[in-house]
From TrEMBL:
Protein name: Jerky protein homolog-like
One Pfam family this sequence matches: DDE_1
Any Gene Ontology CC annotation: nucleus
InterPro entries attached to this UniProt entry: CenT-Element_Derived, DDE_SF_endonuclease_dom, HTH_CenpB_DNA-bd_dom, RNaseH_sf
Keywords, sorted A to Z: DNA-binding
A molecular function (GO) term: DNA binding
Source organism: Culex pipiens (House mosquito)
Coiled coil, from the record: none
Length: 357
């Protein structure tokens, strides 16, 4: 960050300034700054690199004769599972401990599917505890692949476990059931949690491979980011609101929200992912294959979903404004000081990176 400021002429090169990690962390939090460069996926988009990647991907498909059902995408995203559109209900009084706990109820989830949606893997869900008391000891009975990490973030270890323990077996099982050769190409963003820049991530037989998008092109064409993840979140939010509205327990509204369990969150996310149609998934690839006529993509308009969720939100005691509702739907939520709470671009400090890699 300091190098960037110097390049922009914000401070003179002759000046010297030394800041501790603690000072920088407080400064970053105070002004809502995010360490975008660490993960490489929050900086401005690189259109030229994206166009080159598209050409490379198409050539790879042609050379290997890949079909739509053999090409996959996965991407993780944060979800504040107890956050509602009404700031006054949940977020205005940051001095209330219960309110802070509600805000910090956060998980990371990762959907993965092939282009035509014929093989949708169970969601990967990361919470803050390895063995939460509300979940069974045998996690295999859950409808999601659950793991725990200190801050509910994805890291390389968890991702590799998912790739070799979930993705590869799923592809092989799907291929066997359909009488196909067990092979696949997984498209991933260039995130430090997915690789360290030198890893070759593939199955033991080399038939299930990974291709990484260039840095800073997620917003341009990462399929799951082209409406799929948001559609999952919006469906989850609708289920959360309906649960709170239809709950006939005589309790304060805030208490009902606080009592939402991790198991309920898992079930609602699983249901939301199940409801995502193959057309929605297939349409999310259109930016990558807009000039590749071999792949004819089905596209589904999910505009009505936004209206459904907004209509549901209006039944709440503290009816949010339209702008607040839209921000909430698009994962743009601010605290009472107007600082943006970012849910999609996870940030690793140097200490965090050392503890998880």
């Amino acid at each position: 960050m300091f190098r960037s400021l110097k390049e922009q002429g914000v401070y003179d090169e002759e000046q010297t300034f030394t800041a501790s990690n603690g000072w920088y962390d407080r400064f970053r939090k105070r002004y809502g700054l995010k360490m975008a460069g660490i993960k490489g996926e929050c900086a401005s988009s690189d259109t030229a690199a994206f166009e080159k990647f598209k050409a490379r991907l198409v050539q790879l498909i042609i050379d290997n004769n890949y079909e739509k059902f053999e090409i996959y995408n996965a991407d993780e995203s944060a979800l504040f599972v107890k956050l509602l559109p009404s700031r006054t209900l949940i977020m205005n009084d940051e001095d209330i401990a219960e309110g802070r706990k509600v805000i910090k109820s956060r998980v990371t989830f990762m959907p993965c599917s092939n282009i035509d949606g014929s093989n949708k893997l169970p969601l990967m869900l990361i919470g803050t505890a390895e063995n939460p008391r509300t979940l069974p000891k045998d996690k295999s009975s859950l409808p999601v692949y659950y793991k725990g990490s200190k801050k509910a973030w994805m890291n390389r270890l968890l991702f590799k476990e998912w790739f070799h323990g979930q993705f590869v077996p799923s592809v092989r099982k799907f291929s066997a059931e359909n009488g196909r050769e067990p092979r696949a190409l997984l498209v991933l963003d260039n995130c430090s949690a997915h690789h360290d820049g030198g890893d070759v991530l593939e199955s033991d037989d080399g038939k299930i491979k990974v291709i990484f998008l260039p840095p800073n092109v997620t917003a341009l064409g990462q399929p799951m980011d082209q409406g799929v993840i948001n559609a999952v979140k919006k469906r989850y939010k609708k289920k959360l609101m309906l649960h709170l509205l239809l709950d006939d327990q005589e309790a304060l509204f805030e208490d009902k929200l606080k009592n939402v369990s991790l198991r309920q969150t898992i079930d609602w996310l699983d249901q939301a992912w199940t409801e995502i149609s193959s057309k929605t998934i297939e349409g999310s690839w259109r930016k990558l294959f807009d000039e590749f006529p071999t792949f004819v993509l089905d596209v589904e308009d999910n505009a009505s979903l936004d209206q459904e969720v907004q209509d549901t939100a209006r039944f709440f005691p503290d009816d949010p404004t339209n702008d607040e509702n839209k921000d909430w739907l698009n994962n743009k939520v601010c605290d009472k000081n107007g600082n943006l709470i970012v849910g999609d671009c996870d940030v690793y400090t140097d200490q965090d990176k050392r503890s998880i890699t």
